[in-house]
## 1
Amino acid sequence: MRVLSVASEAVPLVKTGGLADVAGALPAALAPHGVELTTLLPGYPAVLKALGKGKAVHSWPDLLGQKARVLAGSLGGQPLLVLDAPSLFVREGGPYGDAGGQDWADNWQRFAAFARAAAELAVMQEFDLLHAHDWQAGLAPAYLRFLHGAKAPPSVMTIHNMAFQGHFGREIFPALGLPAEAWSMTGVEYHGGVGYLKAGMEAANIITTVSPSYAREIRSAEFGMGLEGLIASRGARVRGIVNGIDPAEWNPASDVHAPAQYSAASLARRRTNKRALEAEFGLDQDDGPLFIVVSRLTWQKGMDVAVEVLDHLVANGGRLALLGSGDAALVAGLSAAAARHPGRIGLKIGYDEGLSHRMQAGGDAILVPSRFEPCGLTQMYGLAYGCVPVVARTGGLADTVIDANLAALAAGVATGIVFTGVTQMSLADAISRAISLYRQPGVWKTMQRAGMKADFSWASSGALYAQLYQEVVRA
Ligand code: ADP
Ligand code: GLC
């Protein structure tokens, strides 16, 4: 089966978050199941550079008003298509906004062109199925449905985060090149404007999201963010498939970024990594617990609550190394805490892939106090690395971490600390629990080993996607 996977980011070419890890890992996860997954990416500068010359396979004199062509190449041995439209994608800054963090004003046009190209390619190149990821690809299923009708292959819409919906004003509708009938509640119209994610959810044959718990949660207003009604109406056509992690990238026994490699049988070697990490963050060297955070600094991730409990963390003998970027107010709050606690709290504001590996390899526990989390990858990296996750009971966090309650501890199956409700009190309490477990080295080691033994590879989720593709194509 040939599937066109349409995503706005994929490792190792372009990444702002977990979507890139997932889109980058899917082709290899599906290959053993007889599915050839071709990835379509926008031609950002880094993508074009990695592609090299590429082979032009199609061109448009006018794709939503812009000149564009498609270049073919490969990504980790799997087929890659790149939409080369310099006026839309070749700019300084990030994939969605300028260096100052301001969204590009023409994002509606950039990702409508991307989705339209995806739909046309899926038809022209006779793909069996189109798999759209997030709002940036959301219009692709709608273009298939409204412009290609019976010739269109079926489609799957995957929601990586309901908080990002791609909602634009009504005035863009005429420029999208969709027929008038698409302007309806079951088409692309959403609260008087155009909803890209909504459009994809309406038009796709199946909707998936990235964990079973999140698939349930988005049926409620709190997590559905306006689209809960649509989710509920699609009933069994909404599925949750938990993400895997890529063992080639995230394996403590072969991690190229960490000073010392180790496995569950050689946990003592983590000490070298811990010492190096303390030095890298300018922290005191001691054997007390070293917490880490690797995160976007946003409300979703509960970082405002984390800021409030740092005094408690330090007062109880903990230290924190944090790597992240995001909201200025959170950066200010974190910087103030670091200034109050020199040697105990270390910050690196920015984005650093290698450092994120060294932190998982040297930290004792990773804090993930998210208010919602469709899947979450950093807690799984923590599990694989023996960096015990302390997580909120939500979405994929609840699905991947086993709380150290008395029964789980007694059975030796606990892998982390799971707390309910993202409040100062519950997070402070979870940190206290982590510290007291850490002070019982035998118990802690059993937790580390249980996490490292758990299987978060793509093997089972790859099989679930393959099954789902079969189901959709045969329907
Ligand atoms: P989200 O996609 O919502 O940000 P995930 O947990 O799914 O959350 O994925 C985040 C990914 O981005 C992980 O691979 C994590 O290691 C990485 N990451 C987040 N912030 C940083 C940072 N400042 N530096 C390096 N990697 C980061
Ligand atoms: C989104 C979600 C995150 C998920 C990632 C990959 O960024 O916020 O929870 O892990 O997508 O699916």
Note: The longest helix spans residues 107-124.
## 2
Amino acid sequence: MSGIQARLNAISAVINYKPSHAPLNYHDTKPTDIFGANVFSDKVMKERLPKPVYKSLKKTIELGEKLDPSISDVVANTMKDWAIEKGATHFTHVFYPLTGMTAEKHDAFLVPDGKGGAIAEFSGKLLIQGEPDASSFPSGGLRSTFEARGYTAWDVTSPAYILENPNGTFLCIPTAFLSWTGEALDKKTPLLRSNQALNKQAKRVLKLFGVETKLPVTSFAGAEQEYFLIDRNFVFSRPDLLIAGRTLFGAKSAKGQEFEDQYFGVVPRRVLSFMMEAERELFKLGVPVKTRHNEVAPSQFEIAPIFEIGNLATDHNQMIMTTLRSVAKRYGMVCLLHEKPFAGINGSGKHLNYSLGNADLGSLYDPGDTPHDNAQFLVFCAAAIRALHKYGAMLRATVATASNDHRLGANEAPPAIMSMYLGEQLTDVFEQIKKGKVNNSKSKGIMNIGVDTLPPLPMDPGDRNRTSPFAFTGNRFEFRAVGSAQSIAGSLVALNTMMSESLDYIATELEKATKGDSKKLNAAVQTVLQKIIKEHDAIVFNGDGYSDAWHKEAAKRGLPNLKTTPDALPVLTTKPVIDLFTKYGVLSEAELRSREEIYLEMYAKTLKTEAALMVRMASTIIFPAAMRYQSELAAACANLKAIGKDFKMSTLEDITAKLRSMQTSVAKLEKLLSVEGKNSHAEAKHLCDKVLPAMNELRSFADALEVVVADDLWSLPSYQEMLFIR
Ligand code: ADP
Ligand code: MG
């Protein structure tokens, strides 16, 4: 189908949309019955596994003790029986390659029994280890193709689960993905390693405070996921949305988000139906999704779960992304997880709420009532201040992608400069510590809401500051620079590791100063806190992160401002970062180099694809439409002339000029695209500094044409149609 007809069909399909399947039977199935129904959960294990096996497995899951391989056959068998009862025919080791995606390869349980029949089999060996062909996953030089073998290793700490399809189900086993030499080819392995490092160092600090806990200290993560929903029919008519996940062309809609009528607004009916089904699917998988709401931009929404242990939260966030995508299709929509699908309105991010603790201790970032009394809390805060000051650039590198570049620093997401918002109360405490005295903290104020029938609400000590990339929000930090399409693993690994290093430093200082004498602890804590805040308070900033004044001030303070991905990624292989990751056994130098290489390549591939697509769309869609309009106008002029009216048509001149500019622009972009960089960094730099501006230039001419060419000749669905017809 061509031209305007496709666009009209899309609109008609949206307007006449009817659900393709029956509504959910929500009366009969209570959420409490559904929750975790498809998870090989603690409850299922307790019921089905022999007691000693259950106990042994539990020790591995909860206390992080080594898995006893002798129990694996029993666990595998029980898991298989449970899965088959739930309709499973296959199992898969689920893993998380460096593309940020979720990967799976299915194997049937059935094997021929030699007598013409078949039996279902699943051994401990198959549960513990898999061998997917790794050759097509990026390894960044860690493994050459002739050594394509990679293996997956069961992550006992993240429960297995069942995924459903109308035609059957299959068992999913979360795994780590490594090369045959043991190098991490994935996002999970370093995360598990960083949790171990964190546990060790946090426990040293806690021990000094007389806190003993049997459970490991771990990271907690809660990821707020933003996304757009667009009717599928629009996507089919827009090659850019289909292939790049974002619009490469498109004039701004007359109405955008400026009315602020969307945020927390009533959720449209079809969207709400989608949300309810997506949540139900996620409940079945034990993902504790909690909040849903309209976001700031039109057709933008958010889903957030209750926070969990970092590793589980990461797997669950991957499931959330997969589920949003697949359920949206059932409702005739496409879920766009891209960080910037539409120019001129907000993009999508993923606020990563982060804290440390465990089930015994709660959050170690919970200040209690008077923060200055709570020395332990302050020590953990100081560790974060020091960590962010030392390794902010590295943390920034973990969110560097081509798509997130459109968002960071665009005055809607935090700037690329890493700084920490502490809030008035905590800042005051640390200022007093710096001066050498801690008397009182500004006590929690009571918010006066002026309505007598309402109770007074306690004011959050870490008030909201949406412009800060790293904000203290009462009992946790909120890292706001993660992209909506990204895995949260990279940032979590960075946070865990940099926190480990700071806790290590603090523990060492305190151990030296106290020499086992707990009476000396208070003075030692004062000293170390003072030292840290004196050296590292440049990272603390409570003001407006969007302002020019801050950019100048940040430069004065020596805080890096790594604006683009090619600027940021090389940080991963600087000496301090290599030293950090190798010291705590989280990533080797080779693993870091491979990551820099892979992410640079992914950046280059994204930009090249987008640029090539722009050239094609400009030449085959936009140029012909504008040409047709140009000839219509030219014909009209000729006709007028023929009847003796010499009519000067400014539109014709305008269009002709724009068409010419667009052609020049296309040629320029094609030429720039043919240049190859001598290595991946040079290539990324070229794409960033030369190709991207040329893409923007081409877009500006095309978008200018869109607002003058006759609408019935324009075949691409417009911004207003995509964003406001639902
Ligand atoms: P807001 O939009 O106001 O930031 P949301 O409710 O959308 O709040 O999201 C807050 C997220 O922070 C949730 O996922 C929540 O579970 C998580 N969270 C709350 N407390 C902690 C904590 N101590 N550690 C980590 N995450 C937390
Ligand atoms: Mg939120």
Note: The CA atoms of residues 61 and 410 lie 42 Å apart.
## 3
Amino acid sequence: MARIFSGIQPTGIATLGNYLGALRNWVALQDGADECIYCLVDLHAITTFQEPASLREQTYGMAALVLACGIDPERSILFHQSAVSAHARLGWIFNCVARMGWLKRMTQFKDKAGKNQEEVSTGLFMYPNLMAADIHAYHATKVPVGDDQLQHIELANDIGEKFNHDFGVEFFPRIEPLIVKETARVMSLRDGTKKMSKSDPSDQSRINMTDDADTISQKIRKAKTDTEALPDNLAALAQRPEARNLLGIFAAVSGESQEAILARFAGGGFGPFKNALAEALVAHVAPIGARAKEYLADKAELDRILQKGAAKAAAIAQPITAEAERIVGFLPSAG
Ligand code: AMP
Ligand code: TRP
């Protein structure tokens, strides 16, 4: 049995990109033989300032949504990162293993910090070390993510390898990303060359998993496209990122192949295609949003689920972290 670990930031509302790129795979993996551990990464969230009240709300909101997507807390471990101190403890050790040059190459940092590199928090810069600790604290070997996280997983492997090498141990295993190729990168509805993101200033750029049927339909109707008719083959979409993105979403939520969908709409404009896409999306997404609302109505129950998950997570992560601390040369601690 292998161990699977993944995380999502409790900032904003999960998008269709989070769902198709990651969350849907989290749910599917639950049915396999591996142990699944899923984490609401609130320590990562505060790398950019979060209003405390809204961080609390968003963490509940994300817990509700993950459950609504189908994560079963009896079969998977679901918890919030700050509840298990192993993450921060191992994260600190990794801050002392990773090299400045490695972190400076991270494209996500460059994207997020932009011209503002002197002003962003040091946490934003060191964030991939904490992500490496999230995974290695469980000796997890499989990590379901979208393809924007690939570089961070390579870094986690570099960190594990350097730790093993520096201390002459075989302690941290290699990590393998699990990526659903077709939906590894769902793009913005306003710009087919940009990733759909919960932090995009334009709400029109994304489908939120809590959007109601009318909002979903309206966003699809307004989604950017081009003026050409739909072609009868996929190759003809190579230079049409918006059309390719909508077709990818359509196939992912309907279960039909992209070719079969194109065959139905070839030669026509985007109107009928968008109507059918909106209908498929509403059928798939709206029930999840409705279920999330129900979970969100009982925060005491969410607290209970997350705290139970945290106890199970700690039982795995604390001994591994304690062993890493022993390898480094720290004296034994009580906790
Ligand atoms: P985040 O919202 O950055 O916490 O991402 C949570 C998970 O969703 C990660 O596995 C990401 O790789 C994945 N993800 C985020 N945005 C997208 C997207 N537009 N397409 C596919 N996967 C995504
Ligand atoms: N960095 C990931 C993101 O922004 C979230 C994350 C944190 C994560 N720790 C993780 C994903 C560990 C996989 C494994 O999307």
Note: The chain has a mean pLDDT of 96.
